[in-house]
Design brief:
Blueprint: E1 3-4, E2 9-12, E3 24-28, H1 31-38, E4 43-45, H2 50-60, E5 74-75, E6 81-83, E7 86-87, E8 90-98, E9 115-125
């Protein structure tokens, strides 16, 4: 059984779309807005690329070190993202926008000069809609 974590913010460098099993809203989000939220809430990180983590931590002003080595997202019974036994209804995905033609070498840290900017998306899982075939608003497979 997992517990819902409205207090923590789920942050990573990508999100595996095969884990989206119900309606979501994906929209661009500002780094400034995320920084403000991170000032009030702890982070639950599943950051997977060590080569960009230092630059992302400098940008956000928080540690993005995952609680476990090689963290893997899973789905809760409610089909929501789950990390380390906690379930989330939102996720922030922060990705670097590299200079033209640049592709980082495997295992090497990316310098700030190689990153032109950052792209941030917020993914929100929407509650299922009530309908005649699902009057109790139960999640279906």
């Amino acid at each position: 059984m997992t517990k819902r974590s409205p207090a923590k913010l789920l942050v990573g460098n990508s999100f595996p779309l095969p884990l989206v099993r119900q309606a979501v809203s994906i929209r661009p989000w500002s780094v400034r807005q995320l920084r403000a939220r991170l000032a009030r809430h702890p982070v639950a990180s599943y950051w997977g690329h060590a080569n960009t983590r230092s630059a992302a931590e400098s940008l956000l002003g928080v540690s993005l070190a995952p609680a476990t080595d090689r963290p893997a997202l899973a789905l809760s019974p409610d089909r929501l993202p789950c990390l380390d036994g906690e379930t989330f209804i939102s996720c922030y995905v922060l990705s670097p926008d590299y200079r033209p033609g640049f592709r980082p070498a495997i295992g090497s840290e990316v310098s700030a000069e190689d990153i032109r900017s950052w792209k941030l998306l917020r993914i929100d899982w929407l509650p299922p809609k009530r309908n005649k075939t699902n009057p109790r608003n139960e999640r279906t497979r």
